[in-house]
Amino acid sequence: MHLDAASHRLDPSAHAAGWTVDGHDLDRWLAGRGAAPMVDRVPVLAFGSNRCPGKLTWLREHLGLAGPVVVLRARVEGHAAVWAAGLRARDGARPATLAPVPGAVETHAVWMATPDQVGVLDRCEGRGERYDLVRLETGRVVTEDGARLERVWTYWAGDPVRAPLLVDGAPVRVADVAQDAARALVGEPGPLAPDAVTVEPGTPDPHAWPDRVFAYGTLMPGRRAWRLMAPFVTGTPEDAWLPGRVHDTGLGYPALARGGPGRARGVLLRLADPAAALPRLDDYEGPDYRRERAVVHTRDARVPAWVWTWRGELTGTPLTAPWPTGDR
């Protein structure tokens, strides 16, 4: 977490935000500073200087970066930071760019950025000229808490000047050659690899990511409200759980309390169009529920998903199995 030229350590937690800062729930910490919560931010993979606290301070001083910047450590598989074909006009340095590199495993960073902060990155990276803002369709990005982030945003070469530099036909990884030596490299621009990404138009919508929801009650397949959910779902539902307890409200539907002992069991559903589906689902859940992002466990992965939690006190009996069939 970067704010006012100072960095604060983030630690994974079972809190609603998924992280703590200085021992406090991250969302509460952000709210205390008038900043956007985690649900109003999108994951942007940073593979060069944008993970550096000194660069963040420079962005504040020169490009108007404002508010707390949430930066998560991430393991990136199948892509690597490589040296770009062209030099930077401002200082003659060779910038990094991202490229598919089979078998590569590197540590980079993921900004959980507000739309305004993405706008600052757009100006810094020369979006639409040197780089495009894209959704990453290949490889794997896993944050420090074990969550696999799918289709993260990142900046991808949009012009040959930021394409990977090929030396003897191969890209040169930043991890293998230092910045000073990289200036003297001689080669040619490589391909832009458009199949690895989808160019993102406009400003990212935080509520369009992730594309999955965790259902534990009436929205599950075969339950009363499945007819509402089904038209938005693509793919096969997966059994899933997250830390917490599902309670019987006694009103004909269950409620989720996150965190603490126990496992709340349900199913993970993929949405074909989250931006269209989520407002309809919010209307169904009503004011007694809050939509949050959570890390959900499946048989072989941990993935972010939307989940509706109960806003008030819970006095009903905790359930040890998913909400039963035959509900109203």
- According to DSSP, the number of beta strands is 22
List low-confidence stretches: none
The biggest beta sheet is recorded as: 8 strands, mixed
Radius of gyration over all CA atoms, rounded: 22 Å
Mean pLDDT: 92
| Relative strand content | 35-45%
Any idea of the CATH topology of the largest domain? Hypothetical upf0131 protein ytfp
Helix content: 10-25%
**CATH architecture verdict of the largest domain:** Roll
Tell me the overall shape.
elongated
Strand order of the largest sheet: 11-10-7-8-6-12-9-16
* CATH class designation of the largest domain: Alpha Beta
End-to-end distance, in Å? 45 Å
Please tell me the total number of domains.
2
* Discrete helix count: 6
What is the H/E order? EEEEEHEHEEHEEEEEEHEEEHEEHEEE
Helix-strand category = mainly beta
- CATH superfamily grouping of the largest domain: Gamma-glutamyl cyclotransferase-like
